[in-house]
Automatic annotation (TrEMBL):
CKK domain residues: 136-269
GO molecular function, one term: calmodulin binding
Family: Belongs to the CAMSAP1 family.
Domain of life: Eukaryota
Name of the molecule in the record: CKK domain-containing protein
Keyword Hydrolase assigned: no
Length: 290
């Protein structure tokens, strides 16, 4: 019986039947396939992790580059502002023409013949200089300073009047800026950073003149309540702790009392007075007729 069974099964050299050998091969193939899948999955996870780390490094590098650019821009602004102050101080000491500077001449003691007690000094007329009649060009031209036109155009296009809804107003505002001869522009805000108007900053008299939008025609430094600076990298306006109008300022807000309420004003001439109102006497009132 044992010999019959042994001859029928025909065991393999390892002592396994053909059925067991097939199961073993199948198991080995499944295990190998699973190992390959696990290896592929781990490689994919490692690739994703590597890409995430690479993107994070690129993001950090761009952030550092943007911070460096903002820092360089701030240094350039401060340098331009300092140069402008130096040139303004030098302009106050430069004469308006090529005429030479003349020291005041000697004074003569003059007596009044009508009053012996009173005497006064009068200056002797100075001799005319050879350059007094010169009508040539002026030596000094006042610098215009660094312009923030591109910064304001960027702020209006991408922040203040962005979107298709504001396309008409944005085109008009950009056209007003392009047609203006100013060098430094400021944006008027209300209720936070809500856009209202664009102004040109006159550095000579520290006044702002409106070229587009809704707001006072002229704004002085006494009307200013807050100042803002535009961050071109973050595309946002940041409030700065300053009250002085300078070329480093890109936006401002005025006091609430400077805004017109828009209430109609009734003239006193239209209101009736006591002279216009006639109260009839009781004798003038006629009795009713039935």
């Amino acid at each position: 019986m044992a010999m019959f069974i042994g001859d029928d099964t025909n065991p393999s050299p390892q002592g396994l039947t053909p059925e067991q050998e097939r199961k073993r091969e199948k198991f080995m193939k499944l295990r190998q396939k699973k190992q390959e899948e696990d290896k592929t999955r781990k490689e994919a996870e490692l690739e994703k992790k590597r890409r995430r780390e690479e993107k994070q490094r690129e993001k950090e590098m761009l952030h550092r580059m943007e911070e460096e650019r903002i820092r360089q821009e701030e240094l350039e602004r401060q340098k331009a502002e300092q140069e402008l102050r130096i040139r303004d101080a030098q302009a106050a000491r430069v004469p308006d023409s090529y005429s030479t500077y003349r020291r005041p001449g000697p004074r003569q003691h003059v007596y009044d013949i009508n009053d012996d007690a009173n005497s006064y000094f009068v200056p002797v007329p100075a001799q005319p200089s050879g350059f007094a009649d010169f009508s040539g060009p002026q030596c000094y031209v006042k610098p215009s300073g660094k312009s923030n036109r591109k910064i304001i155009v960027n702020a209006v296009s991408h922040v203040c009047l962005s979107g298709t809804v504001n396309q008409d107003q944005k085109d008009k505002c950009l056209q007003a800026i392009s047609e203006s001869d100013g060098h430094h522009f400021m944006i008027l805000f209300k209720d936070g950073v809500k856009f209202r108007a664009v102004y040109v900053h006159n550095l000579d008299n520290e006044q702002l003149f409106k070229i587009f939008g809704i707001g006072p025609r002229v704004v002085t430094s006494k009307m200013v309540e807050g100042l803002y600076k535009y961050n071109s990298g973050g595309k946002e306006f940041t409030k700065i702790p300053s009250k002085t109008l300078s070329i480093s300022v890109d936006g401002f807000a005025i006091q609430k009392s400077c805004w017109h309420t828009g209430k109609p004003v009734v003239s006193s001439r239209l209101l009736p007075t006591s002279r216009d109102l006639h109260v009839p006497h009781r004798d003038e009132i006629s009795p009713p007729t039935f």
